[in-house]
Amino acid sequence: MSLMLKLLSITLLLNSFIYASSVSDKVEDFLDDKFMENPRLKSVDVHVSDVVPLTQLKGWNAYIVDVEAYLKAKPKRLIKQRMIWFSDGRIITKELTDMQDGGSLTDLVKPPFKEEFYHKENHISGSVDAKHKVAIFSDPLCPFCKGFVPGALDYMKKHPKKFALYYYHFPLERLHSASVHLVKAAAAAELQGYKDVVEKLYHVQINPQERDVKKILKAFNKAVGTKLTPKDLNTPAVIKQVNRDLDIANAVMVGGTPTIYFDGKVDNTKKKYLKAE
Q1: Within this chain, do residues 186 and 219 fall inside the same structural domain, yes or no?
Q2: Owning domain of residue 46
Q3: Distance between CA 177 and CA 137 in Å, rounded?
Q4: What are the pLDDT digits (tens) for 14-51?
Q5: Do 156 and 215 belong to one domain?
Q6: Which of 18, 46, 182, 218 has the fewest CB atoms inside 10 Å of its own CB, making it the most exposed?
Q7: Are residues 150 and 34 part of one domain?
Q8: What span, in angstroms and rounded, lies between the C-alpha atoms of 138 and 258?
Q9: Residue 41: Cβ within 10 Å count
Q10: What are phi and psi of 206, to 5 degrees?
């Protein structure tokens, strides 16, 4: 390559970088102002952590945005969320859909499930050296999870050399308030050495909107065979485990349950494990 072409290439790269950076600033400023219109928020910090060019749409990029917001309610509560926005520098939108296949462009730019997210505390069945790694994010009170997770766990547990199965608690507090205490109870039971806790978790009979910790624990203890007390749910080890699951969910942008990752990639069909060799 000639010196002139090299200089031209460098100039184009620099211009692209400067453009992306300037649009990132605009995206941050726009979302910061937009989110602060919410009267429930005390403060908001928006940061673009990554920019992914869209091959399907010339001039457009996907912006992976990390948001930290404090609620005005007491006690002060910090909310962390990672999201994807699309912009060409003038227009910004949350959703883009490919009209040819009907697929969401959001799914194409979501972060992969990194090797570092496979923790031993989340490993519930199969050899760690199995051919495939499957990660499941679930809420035990989610109707869709109840119809999918128990069968998937049972199937993969029968093939320990084929599947290394990892489970992550992702309680949907707004929909099933009881699940917040249930996943803490599950983490506490596992830390105390109880086996097959996740499988038994789906047999807990409780109103999803129940908020009474004692009632929730009574139902959990009956289904799992434990003798947990409310004090057991708030130990540093339990809080650390539950928060780490939520942090991983946020890092890979899990938005609903059940969410399945098959060999590091999100499986929207939720059936790849059935076809795995």
Answers
A1: yes
A2: 12-109
A3: 17
A4: 444 444 468 899 999 999 999 999 998 899 999 998 88
A5: yes
A6: 18
A7: no
A8: 5
A9: 14
A10: -155, 150
